[in-house]
Amino acid sequence: MTEKSGQSDPxxxxxxxxxxxxxxxxxxxxxAASEAEDSNPLCGDEIKIGIKVKDSKIADVKYxxxxxxxxxxxxxxxxxxxxxxxxxxxxxxDRKFILxxxxxxxxxxxIKCALLPLKALKLAIYSxxxxxxxxxLGNP
Length: 140
Description:
alpha+beta; Sufe protein. Chain: A
């Protein structure tokens, strides 16, 4: 992908479209250990994410979202990645991780779309741990 054009490699566009059209882990999680909601008021994207935790790891994660292809694909990809990972490891994920996973540079207008699922997942983890989320998507 070129930084100036904001266009991604066709492979990544395909990946985003696949996860947008066939989102993984979409739905609500019964008996979630923690849930969080967030939205992007600039474009109207909304997400609610729930996690189950076992042995300090994310045993299951599900989300419901209404949004653009970037936020939906990001939630789908992130949910697949997070399953089985330690809470502390997921807490340390940052914006570079999610952008690399998506394979795009969405530019200033769409960056919040790409980061929305990560922020919601971190909010759920912080809530589960009884910690206050610092509001950044860098390291905790």
